[in-house]
Amino acid sequence: MFGKSSLGKAMYVSRILVWLMVGLGLVGTPAITNAALPSLESWTHVSSDGQYVLVMISPLSAAEEVEFSDADADVKMIRATYMQSGLYRNDGSTSPIWTIPFKDVTHEVYLGPQGKYLMLAHDGGSNWSGHLGHLVTFYSDGRELASYTDEKLFSLVELGLPQVARSEYDNLAFDPQGMTFTIFGSQGVRIVFDVTSGQVIRHVSPVPMYVAAAILLFTSLVVIGWFWLRCQRVATAST
Is the keyword Transmembrane assigned to this protein (predicted)? Predict the structure, then answer.
């Protein structure tokens, strides 16, 4: 018979394997070499004003997580203090203001004023299993407003351009005064969201400029070609 430790270890390994297979299925073959195991550890994030703390409780049992975590003291403190994933007042309160399903620690966290709005984002080049292509997800009081991936947010033309859709130099910015969230991409791409609705309010892209330049180049080549052929015909006729 297996003891509790062996059984817990088997359950932990099986869950990791399932998460990994799902992640690799979503990411696809080209990204396998860069894929990484998803983190199942509990974690916290304190808001910039220090008033709130976002808590994520692992889907693993407390015993499993404490046994296999690399940060035993931190995990024990989180699991001993909080029971649910969600937002709490950073004053020792153990009653959540609102709850949210577990999200792993690879997310960039942005909390709005009064703890109402939450943005979970990934900066460029994130190859964590299950997150490749994810840009940002918006929440209001723990309720998901909108979520965006490369394929959902960018046009096929933009996705076909090198380093336009995503790059490792992307920059994320939250403006709590204007309540906007901005993704700065390469080649002049800038996407601005309304935090209160999660909707895109501005999408600046180099694609129209590229299309106009391509049309101008094509037109110029046609005119030059036509003029050259006309000159050739005139020269032939004169001889």
Answer: yes
Instruction: Residue 27: give the domain boundaries.
Output: 4-155
**Spatial distance between the Cα atoms of 120 and 103, rounded to a whole number of angstroms:** 9
CA distance 61 to 110: 27
Domain-embedded: residue 202: no
In a domain, 129, yes or no: yes
Q: What is the pLDDT of residue 165?
A: 47
CA distance 54 to 85: 8
Q: Look up tokens 């080549």; give the residue.
A: 221
pLDDT band at 161 (very low <50, low <70, confident <90, very high): low
Looking at residue 197, what DSSP letter applies?
A: T
Residue 181 binned pLDDT confidence (cut-offs 50, 70, 90)? very high
